[in-house]
Design goal:
This protein is mainly beta. It has a single domain, classed as Thrombin, subunit H (Beta Barrel). The chain is built from no helices and 6 strands.
């Protein structure tokens, strides 16, 4: 397994995510950003989005803004990203999915 080239910062920031596929861009899925880095993020949603899809992700809770120590390096409030992988979490009462996202250049 390849080692990561950038450090991931753990976080628990509420997010909203939508796929930019033409047939589903109006669907918004709420979830949680689990970690982030300058290169990407890992989010947890109740909906799976396939690898290769482009998504828009947006932080939905502003309560962390006043605590600058809570802002991890690499955190973006709004970003476009490519889904690199998606996997279903086991032993959940309802379906939950983790997704690894790579930020697209601005």
């Amino acid at each position: 397994m390849a080692k990561r080239t950038v450090i991931r910062n753990r976080t628990r920031i509420p997010v909203a995510c939508s796929s930019l596929k033409s047939d589903s861009w109006t669907q918004i899925f709420k979830g949680t950003m689990r970690n982030c880095s300058c290169a990407g993020t890992c989010i947890e949603l109740d909906h799976s989005i396939r690898a290769g899809n482009i998504v828009m992700i947006k932080a939905t809770d502003r309560s962390w803004q006043n605590d600058h120590s809570a802002l991890p390096e690499g955190f973006r409030t709004v970003a476009l990203a490519e889904v690199k992988w998606s996997k279903q979490l086991e032993n959940q009462t309802r379906p939950r999915y983790l997704m690894g996202l790579r930020y697209l250049p601005n």
